[in-house]
Amino acid sequence: MSTHPLPLDGITVVAIEQAVAAPFATRQLADLGARVIKIERPDGGDFARGYDTAARGLASHFVWCNRGKESLAIDLKDPRGLAVVRRLVADADVFVQNLAQGAAARLGLDATTLCAAHPRLVAVDISGYGADGPYAHKRAYDMLVQCEAGLVSVTGTPGQPVKAGVPAADIAAAMYAFSGVLAALLRRATTGLGGPVEISMLEALTEWMGHPLHHRMHGGETPARAGLAHPVIAPYDAFETADGEHLLLSVQNDREWRRLAEQVLGRPELADDPDFATNTARTAHRERTDAVVAEVLATLTTQEALAELDAAGVACARLNTVADVAAHPQLAARDRWREVESPVGPLRAMLPPITLPGGAEPRMGAVPALGEHTEALLRAAGMTDEQTSELRRDGVIA
Fold it and tell me: Model-level pTM greater than 0.90?
């Protein structure tokens, strides 16, 4: 039985990208079969290459976001370097950039300019705050945008706001850029025209703020920071078990509360007690509600508690560490781990979450060394060995 090809086979992407937002977006495209040509500075490349050395000498951010790409290290400030990139863009299907606001426009590589010259091109501008408005030229690193979007204000404990432990603003922008490219390619398939795609980190993350934002805008109070608890649902928190671990329990409705009370807590009368029978009542009496649950779970090991809660149909989860996730039995059972080649040898990586049954497996290509594909790409662009040697001598390429 033949398998379907990867959906983006035959699509070429050129990306002038750095950090996380654009690289993570284009990595999704590469996984689905696109050829991604990553444009980097000759003097060090994407600055995410230098974030750390945790991945056997490579930066963990870079390994995560850049597999399956070809690295062209070239100086865009040199007219010869810029001409090469423009030649590559002319033959591409998609262009993505997340340079500082205004930098791409100065090079003539902003989405509007490129799409005017190449009507079939899908060109993506990713910025922190958008192309206009009073914040357009502010620096926009992930944590700054988390603060501006209000995520930090609703994350943490009552006494301490905290940022998300992953780059949420970058990831949000990346995934909207990814889906924006797919939508624009679909439109091109029916109209023949590509067009600009604009993504703002602030707008992407503000969309993710949907629940607290709509709660506040439409008459409610801003949901309070509650640590692992939920501001408007109880019981919904982490509880310590007899072996010193913590387990998160979540009762989403009154039917679940009845099952919890009867089958796990051994307190069937709490299902009809007016202080506990409804979520509104349980939230109003949160300390008492949590105390009842905590008292019982403290007598059970984590395995016992999980077994009883699962049997009762009550939602629960372990509070896993990052190491626990790397060894998660569900991911192992579903065969979600692969090895990706890199300059330091094979590195473990998870299959992309988009699964296409009956299709080819995602193309998890190698993590490129800086400038690894420079000469091959220049040769394909029509440059002679003499011209390439001249560019290398002058420091235009690496």
Answer: yes
DSSP helix/strand/coil, 250? strand
Element (H, E) at 187: helix 168-191
Could you identify the residue written with the tokens 């039917």?
255
Report the catalytic residues. Answer: 170
Mention every residue, 6+ apart, whose C-beta is less than 8 A from residue 362.
Answer: 6, 31, 32, 351, 352, 354
Asked whether the beta carbons of 316 and 256 are under 8 A apart, the reply is: no
Q: Which residues, other chains included, contact 283 with Cβ-Cβ below 8 Å and sequence gap of 6+?
A: 232, 233, 234, 289
**Under 8 Å CB-to-CB from 290, ≥6 apart: which residues?**
234, 235, 237, 239
Torsion of CA 375, 380, 384, 387, to 10 degrees: -50
Distance between start and end Cα atoms, the chain: 45
Contacts of 194 (CB under 8 A, 6+ apart): 93, 94, 115, 118, 119, 120, 121, 122, 123, 184, 185, 187, 188
Which tens digits make up the pLDDT trace of 108-166?
Answer: 999 999 999 999 999 999 999 999 999 999 999 999 999 999 999 999 999 999 999 99
Distance CA 203, CA 224 (A): 22
